[in-house]
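Class, look over these structure tokens:
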Amino acid sequence: MILVTGASGKIGSEAVRLLTAKQLPTRALVRDPARAPQGGAEVAVGDFDLPETLDDALSGVTTLLLISPSVPSQEIAVIDSAVRHGVGHIVKVTNHKATADSPVPRRRDHARIEAHLRATGVAHTLLGPNLFMQNLFAIAPEVKQSHGFTMSTGDGRFGMVDARDVAATAAAIAASPSGHAGRSYLLTGPELITYTDVADALTAALGHKIDYHAISPGTHRKAMLEAGVPEPVATSNAHVFELIANGDAEWLSGDITTITGTQPRSLREFLDDHLAAFG
């Protein structure tokens, strides 16, 4: 049995779909049964803050696909429950630069979780994606309203990846974890792009000019605060955007193709699939 946490999210729901399509015994962990993915997966209702529900969900599980917002106390509770139940392999979606001394809080959180996972001795695999193409949905309302968008990454390049390709990689490893123990993989799309490239791709796809308005991370942080984004999140996001402007995400990897046998989706393919959201 494969347990997928975060099964109602963009990665988890697609991983569940792919695993059940292969007719593999799959259990989807969700907090709200109304949001459980449709299909042949068994549904387990649980809460990371209620360990007893995790024990029920992990009963009989051999492989765990761990996807969550990376709150250390929560993921550590899941890992500890997995160890108690004899889970043989854990596949964790993490951050590509998870270090204990990172200036970004969520990267430090991932590093703490990874350290705990290693200390348990259970076989595991780490997946570190670059920026998600699905993050572009956040600018979709602005694109629709003003035919432009603001961002504070300057001319920084990034290997933006479709969450569906991350899910496909995670599902492939969960389906056959042998050979992946102790491995870390970096997951990207096929090309390095900037937000100027995003604007150009939207222009081509929508048939009218879309402008990229570059602002400073400090100005962006202020705008996020004014929009109601909690201060820690706004500060962390602005810091990440500044890092991207300075080359933090300027890397590509062929790991998706190596593991799945399929080339990851390009930005244009992503936009073709979701164009209605932007126009």
